[in-house]
């Protein structure tokens, strides 16, 4: 391997780490915050961001940088993600209607959850919008699920985006909590004292986790057991719809 190849791969990894700095609920991030999350000097981040803006992967906003349209367009071309998002939407809408809370679809990227869709807007909120606390709580609940199901995650394959920046601060579930999550079939997480999220897995014919559904909203308006029942039922129907649309995943 030549030195030029090593440098090229290193710069590619750094560019991807900047894109991965955006978490659910992040609309725009300042350059200094992107550099901090990606753990790189500001001049290096500035050069990489300029190239990502030229490529349409990032866009400049009033208060910083946001993910660009080219990145969204590229993401919609991923067959399984597109299929899952399309199939999940009616189930997310039903969950939203039943709970009157924001409903989310997440896909696993290793142990890092990636939001792939949602029907947003809880009680008293604008339709199509959710608070950063809701999206963060939902992502943390799904992150707990991924850790409990780590031995049964569907491989993401060579298309996986490796994470090189700081990861979301999710504590490792204790043995007792892992057992409870596995037995109950759902995980809970909170963001501050007022926001709570419930997440349940979507599994394939081999009982491997392929996605997760989550609901987040005001803690005093969320009934964990009832919400989890809605999520589990939707997960079963989504898995069934996915198998009908694409056939079961091959045995690993």
Annotation keywords:
252 residues; alpha+beta; Arc Repressor Mutant, subunit A; Beta-Lactamase; five-stranded antiparallel beta sheet; two-stranded antiparallel ribbon; 8 helices; 7 strands; 46% helix; globular; disordered C terminus
Report the order of strands and helices.
HHHEEHHEEHHEEEH
Cα Rg: 19 Å
- Share of residues in strands: 15-25%
- How are the strands ordered across the major sheet? 4-3-7-6-5
> How many separate domains make up the residues?
2
- Name the overall outline: globular
What is the number of E strands? 7
Topology of helices and strands:
Blueprint: H1 3-19, H2 31-38, H3 42-54, E1 58-60, E2 65-67, H4 69-75, H5 79-99, E3 102-109, E4 112-119, H6 132-148, H7 175-184, E5 187-191, E6 195-203, E7 209-218, H8 224-246
Structure, explained:
- The protein is of the alpha+beta class and 252 residues long.
- The chain has 2 domains: 3-73, Arc Repressor Mutant, subunit A (Orthogonal Bundle); 79-246, GAF domain (Beta-Lactamase).
- Helix content is 46%, strand content 18%.
- The chain has helices at residues 3-19, 31-38, 42-54, 69-75, 79-99, 132-148, 175-184, 224-246, and strands at residues 58-60, 65-67, 102-109, 112-119, 187-191, 195-203, 209-218.
- The strands form 2 sheets. Strands 4-3-7-6-5 form a 5-stranded antiparallel beta sheet. The protein has a two-stranded antiparallel ribbon with strand order 1-2.
- Strand 6 and strand 7 (209-218) form a beta hairpin.
- Helix 2 (31-38) packs across helix 3 (42-54) and helix 5 (79-99) packs antiparallel against helix 8.
- The longest helix has 23 residues, at 224-246.
- The model is unreliable at 1-9, 156-167 and 247-252 (pLDDT under 50).
